[in-house]
Amino acid sequence: MKSVWVFLVLALLLGCTQKTEHSGFRFGLASAPITLDPRFATDATSTRMNRLLYQRLVEFDVDMQPIPGIATWQRLTDQHYRFFLNRNALFHNQQTLTMADVKATYESVLDPKIGSPHRASLSMITSMTIMDEKTLDFHLHHKDLMFPGRLLLGILPKEQLLNEHVFNRQPIGSGSFQFKAWPESGKLLLERRRDGALFEFLKVKDPTVRVLKMMRRELDMIQNDLQPELVAYLLEKEKLQVSTIGGTRFSYLGFNIEDPVVGQEKVRKAIAYALDRETIIKYVFGGAATLANAILKPDHWAGASNIPGYIYDPAAARRFLQDAGYSSTNRPSVEYKTSSDPFRIRLATIVQQQLAEVGIDVILKTYDWGTFYGDIKAGRFQMFSLSWVGIKNPDIFRYAFHSASIPPAGANRGRFDDQQADQFIDLADQASTQKEQAEYYARLQYYLWQHLPYIPLWYEDNVFISQPDIKGYTLAQDGNYDGLEQVYRLN
Amino acid sequence: MIRYLLSQLASAVLVMIGVSCLVFFLIHLVPGDPVEVMLGESANPADREALRQSLGLDQPLLTQLFSFFNQLLHFDFGHSLYSKQPIVDMLVERIPATVELALAGLFIAVVIAFPLGTIAALKQGTRWDYGAMGFSLIGVSIPNFWMGPILILLFSIGLGWFPVSGREGWSSLVLPAITLGTAMAAILSRMIRATLLEVLGEDYIRTARAKGLPEGLVIIRHGLRNALLPVVTLIGLQLGTLLGGAVITEMVFSWPGLGQLTIESIHRRDYPVLQACVLFISMAYVLINTLTDIVYGWLDPRIRLGQETAQ
User: Fold this and answer.
1) Predicted ipTM?
2) What's the number of domains chain A is made of?
3) What CATH number should be reported for the domain holding residue A401?
4) Residue A368 and residue B82: Cβ atoms within 8 Å?
5) Residue B187 neighbours by CB under 8 Å, 6+ apart
6) How close, in Å, is residue A396 to chain B by CA atoms?
7) What pLDDT digit, counting tens, does each position of B84-108 carry?
8) Which of B41, B255, B261, B268 should we substitute to test contact with A (largest number of A Cβ atoms within 10 Å)?
9) Could you tell me the pTM of the whole model?
10) A422 shares a domain with A307
11) Cβ atoms within 10 A of the Cβ of B299, count?
12) Which residues is A362 bridged to in the sheet?
């Protein structure tokens, strides 16, 4: 037993002497960025990190209108756009960013051998011509009014692209932060260029442990991926700062339209009326979400503000079920698939209970993310719940609802095959002005609300929690980490 | 002894080849398409086909198996479908953390279990025995996902002695090692008690005592050494499990080990990474078992002699 005590005492001493002290900032993440190469980044954390490391041609304003990033643009014809670099940007290796770098970046993404997941969304580009160091022309093979809003990729230096530099591990960008090191798996060190402040991003998967690390000041900041009760606990127990902002993460119930039960519009309407979303938001989210009636928020330039939404009405739900041929002795049974995330399971059990009250039996099936997502993509479901994160362009409607986007050609996972919806989407694509496009999208969203291939649930708020001496952070609607550019510590 | 060692190593190599084949075919049976993982849902069929060809996934399965073995011989596991990082680098990053945690957990387990099991056996039926076995019952009953946070609350938040999580020096190793080690110590101490009780009832122990040997020597030289065989097996199995990644403990303590990598690769359907992780875990098991067999031969010469005479 003596050796046990020696070990414990030694460990104790080491533990006491190695308390984590640092001069920079520590930011807790639920998941580590998978890649720091913007050509391959698709997950939220990687995308947010890449925004810090790289600059983009185009950004979005609060109404999700594309605005100049490092470039302004002119639409010369429907299929010809000219972009002008509007500032002198330097890569972190001190090379000047020119349009040759922009061209090389987009050419690389368009190269099928590279296998970039962003290639499909840029496939309308037929060629690019460098007019001068600061001017680049894009030629498209069809009209695309939303084209500028697609140029969101971080720009990589041409020379390193040609040399097949490993950007995913050693990124060279021109953003406000530059890469310092990967001290170990799940830990990333960046330096803010304007003042040299160090930012350590740590993956702490378990939300409870993330909160405990905040309590012990091992982290300075965390954002999102926290259960509401943990936020409430921190507010109550600790002198931490909590700020929230309405988010764009859209949660919904999806249906397999080819299914004999939920394929009936009346059953979907019954489900929509049976859900008491307001109560769920109030008690489960602690108010940190807003009701959604469509994928895009009403203040989006292509959003629809005239959708009334389905208000909780169990009597109406029962009526719709009766119209669909169901009764108390002949209750519909629906298999509901969700991921194994504890919070999502909790929400699913509430939905199950609310639907049971109007006469719908719900069999809840939870799977690990890979299996669940695989089933959804393959159409092996009756009903599921998922979220769309980071939606900026209304082309999501083509991707999720057009009959030409039924998997494997897109994300119309519910196999919604509706000529009228297709027509609205096609007309919006062919519109000659953005205003005209917005009208078609508004009509489409109203149509979708009527026919319910999805039941919109809510937009989840973004939550930022920081130590009391951390100031200057601004939360973004899409949950990006751009606020770190201005964050500082009170002395 | 050399012949014994060589035969053990040869069978280990055969098992590894078998395991590699099994892993290769099992991964190909898992539903899902790596090309879809890489290109997303919106890619057109021509791009999918082009990528499939460039990855060699359009080749017959046996050709793919051959190239898989060829890669293995060059320690090349390919690249992650998501991060594009060489998988060898990913493993090299994680293995030290996993080995560190496994050995620390095992150390804690052994230093707790041996005295506890021995005392329980020597003081059978007394309150020492009940106390030790009570501890082992509690240790084996408490799940790591509860034990970990409780230790954090107590020692990190309450007393402020250790960091909550992460891998920053020895201080951060203590709590995850205790979490792992306690559960293992519980099982181990019960095993030590049971085998020691059996051994202490043997004739040669009585003979040793009759010869006038001091009690301590009787227990250590004749008792414990003979009780070690099943314990070594158990330690080997536990170490193999730990080298495969203590997933829950790694998750609770944000420990960047192999367990987390395996789980992440399952969730993301990152097949090459998963394949490499499973292969590493299997090989760790094979190696540990081979080592256990070798230790067996050293602990009990009858085992290796038995094999030699059989040959």
Assistant:
1) 0.77
2) 3
3) 3.10.105.10
4) no
5) B136, B140, B234, B238
6) 11
7) 889 999 999 999 999 999 999 999 9
8) B41
9) 0.84
10) yes
11) 14
12) A334
